[in-house]
Structure formats: C-alpha cells, structure tokens
Specification:
The protein is about 15% helix and about 45% strand. By secondary structure, the chain is of the alpha+beta class. The protein has a five-stranded mixed barrel. Strands 7-8-9-11-10 form a five-stranded mixed barrel. It is elongated and about 55 Å long. The two termini are about 30 Å apart. Keywords: Signal.
Amino acid sequence: MKRLLCYLYLLLSLVQTHRLVAQSTQTLSGRVLGFHTNRAGDYDGFQLRTSTGTIWLRFPPHTAAQVLKQTPVGKTVRVTAAEQPLPLPAETAEPVFQLINVQLTSTKRELLLSSLPPPAPAQGKLIKEESALMGELHDDAGRLSALLTDRHVIELKPHQGESVQALLVGVDRLGVVGYERVEPGFINKTGRKLIHPTALIINNQTYAL
C-alpha cells in the first residue's frame, strides 16, 4: 500500500508539471531578494528581481529544502515558470508565477520540481509535552495561525485561531498533544519542527482540537 501511494503521488506530480508546461511559460534570470512563507511558517516562494521588475515564484512547501539550496539571497538564478499568476496575499501587487525549474547561475546546477513528488502522508511521531510559550504566527489577515514553543511550531487550522487566542491571555506555558511532521523536504522559517495538534493543555485544562 505504501508503495502504491508513492506511485500515486509521483503520478500526480507529473500531471501537475505537464499542466504547467502546457501553459505559456517564461524563462527569466534575476537576483533572489527574499522568501515567502505560508500560514504555518513553511517556505513556499521567493522574490526575484529581473531586468523588467520584481516577481514572486511559488513552489510546493515540500520542495523547500532543495529549492532553497538553489536560491541563496543575493545570488543570480535562471528560472522557468508558468505565466498564469497564482494567488498571493495582498501584501504585494507584483506578478506571481509557479516555479517549474531553477538553475543557480554560479554552479549551472538545475533543479526540476517535477523530480520532487509530494511525500506520502504519514501519521508522524506522537508528542505530548509542556513547554514555554515563546510566540505566535499570524496569517496575512492577522489571525492566529500557529503557536511557538521552544522546540515546535503548533499549527492551527483557520477555524481554531480565534477560540485558541482567547484562551491564551496571561498564559506563559503550554501543553500539546499531537503528531510531529516527519515528511521530508519542508523547512520552517522558525527552524522548529511542526506539530499537527489534537489537543492543547492550558492552565491544566485540556482542549480538544
């Protein structure tokens, strides 16, 4: 069954790549300016300054480990990307494209994203711990999207943020029960491992999620 799932995800990745290539594409060169992250803090895009302006290149979060090796900030890269814009939060009016491949000019090494199919879903490592509450992440609308402890990013679903936020007033320690992500390729901007929580423990009270 696990092998069948791997083949299925590889097939879906190839279909997605062929769909993108079938669209009108551009090959561009430019300097990497910085990165974009999703609501959980996982890298999923980078900003590129070309000869005609600045654009955003989006990539699947599970490809981040390889894409970031190819896109150091300040370095020149050559990319092929689908012309059809993809949605990006309203922080920018710059064009947005889907990355197909990227080459770091200084090494001539090329990365084709279709060679990195999504990992098969895995339950992950069961975690139950209590630690200091270090901070929060918010989405582009300012809503609570994740909690930071000293070791983990605790991802919250969009409908959970408001109710959890109300429980955190005056709280400096947090308990969590959930599953630590084990799928490879993701990189979180906090440097922490991500937990998909099933419950939070706040002031000795357990709240199922």
